[in-house]
Every structure is written in C-alpha cells, then in structure tokens.
C-alpha cells in the first residue's frame, strides 16, 4: 500500500501464485469512497473489484496479459475524485475505469475521461447527465453506466406511491447540493403530478446535516401521507428516526441510496419503509457471489447491491477489452457501447447505444419487515 499525500491508493496485481507473465499488465482503475459518509459502499466496491481481478488473472488475464488494478479513495468529494481520476489517467495509464456510485462525482470526472479517451463505467451513478449530453441528446463517447437512471427510479417511486399505495399527498426531503437527489426529485414530481398526486412541500438539507426536526415539523403540518427520500443512507435514516421520535409516522419511500447500515441509526423506525433498488437481496442468483466474497474476505458482505454492481462493472470491462482485442481507449469504448446479451450476475447486459445505459435493467422494490429486506415487487421498464 502506498500513500500519495492527499489520497490513498492501492496497487493490486492479482496474479496467480508462481505465474510468469511475459507481457506488461493491463491497468484498470477503480474509484471508491473509502472514507466519508459513503465508506460502507466504498469498502464493498473495493473488495469486489479485487476479487474480480484475481479471478480474471487466475483464468489467464486479458489478451495474454495480466490485469493490474489501481484503487483510489474519492472521499465522496468532487475535488478528490477529479484528482484521483487525473492521477489514474496521467500517471497510472489506466485503460479504463470502474467509476463511482455518485452522480455528481461521475459528472465531475467526465471531461477528463473524454479528453483522454479513457472509458469510465459508473456503478450506481443514476443521473441522466452522467452519460448523455442534455444539449445534444447524444451520449458522451467514453461515459457509461451499469445501473438504471433517475427518471426510471423517480417514475417507479411516483407510480408506486400513487397507484399501488393509493397515497396522493407527498413531501420530499432532498439534499440540495446533490445532482443525484435533485434529479430524482424532479422526475418524481413530474410523474406524480401527471398521475394526480400533490406535492405538499419539498424540504432541503445539506450533506452531513444531522438535525431535521424543523423540516419534519413543517412536513407534518402539511398533511403529507408519504415522504419521498431521494438521498443517501445516513441522512435518510436520521429523518426516519427523528420523525418517529416526534410522533409522525408517514409512509417512507426511498431510492437506491438505501443501506442496511440504516438500522444502526433508525432501528425499529425502519419497519414498513419501502426502497427502490437494483436487486432483491434474497435473490438466489446472488448466493454464489456472496459465498465467494465471504470466503475471500472472511466476512459476509453487508452491501449486496454494491458487490453486485461492482462485480458486474468489472466483468463488463473485461468483456469489452477482450472483444476490442486491444487496450486502445476508443476501441474499448466502442466495444462497450456494442455490448449485447452479456450474462452478468443478476441480468443480461445490453448497452443502449443511444444512452450508454443498460437496456431494460430491472429494479426491485424492497419492504422492511421484521428488520429484514423483503422483495415486495420486481419492476421492469415497460411494465
């Protein structure tokens, strides 16, 4: 492990023991928030990326060359993420980057990847602007994602609240500095209004805030039946906990910022909350991946979504490099955009060339019952 002053970097060469490689390694990058409020996700993204590289090297690497992985801590901050991406591209000479799970961070590093022609595949950065230029409507050539988007996520939340739960009056708590939260809020409001729902109020806060009592008081007075939470897990858990302490028990529906770590903060107040996320945690197809993770790192994973998306992202990059037959950035990006029917852990990836998003990526709605995530409903675009 080496330290570069302003961030931590891990250089991991996952070669099989005793293997002799005649060629230079193919260097890939992984950006993960290993410190800060998203560290629980970052640790899992880091670990599963290590595992994937160890696996591919045990199978002979890519293009007859070993794969080397460089991991940097983004700290969940744009400035650190930009510095990390620049170092990966300019110093480490990465072929491609498995990107972040934050829309704002992914948007911040996009110009670097585009200039250097280094493909970046985001894990759970869901804002449309991550991959598509709003002015032209065309995808950025080197920006991709492995997850669904905020318009889809916001639409699911609106339709679920209004049609399934029959709740016609909503309040929204949102991080005003987050591209992710603001995007999801926008798409929820648009769809909810078209369905006939009324947004009684929107209540802003900042990342790191810990006291939401003033916003809760106002939301309670508004008569909202349901609270929409397009945020990250710490703030969402505090909002739920403080609402319960103040005797207010609306239905809570949140997005993929959910984490099992919320129980440590909100406890029993998490009961009967709903969460739109990428997979059902109890899906049998995940058992082999969970078992491999547990064996390699000596403990079972907590963030099932993170290890699934992280593993999917690495294998999508491996596949693109293999099909490109070269480490040239333009060729790898082209291969990634042409991905069709690639079997990953939880779905078959076909990349939409018009958006650089997965085509028809399914989503899961979880309900917390007796302290456990249970699959309430599975949703596929077009349903």
TrEMBL record:
<feature type="signal peptide">
    <location>
        <begin position="1"/>
        <end position="22"/>
    </location>
</feature>
<dbReference type="InterPro" id="IPR051010">
    <property type="entry name" value="BCAA_transport"/>
</dbReference>
<feature type="domain" description="Leucine-binding protein">
    <location>
        <begin position="25"/>
        <end position="371"/>
    </location>
</feature>
<dbReference type="InterPro" id="IPR028082">
    <property type="entry name" value="Peripla_BP_I"/>
</dbReference>
<protein>
    <submittedName>
        <fullName>Amino acid/amide ABC transporter substrate-binding protein, HAAT family</fullName>
    </submittedName>
</protein>
<comment type="similarity">
    <text>Belongs to the leucine-binding protein family.</text>
</comment>
<dbReference type="Pfam" id="PF13458">
    <property type="entry name" value="Peripla_BP_6"/>
</dbReference>
<dbReference type="InterPro" id="IPR028081">
    <property type="entry name" value="Leu-bd"/>
</dbReference>
<keyword id="KW-0732">Signal</keyword>
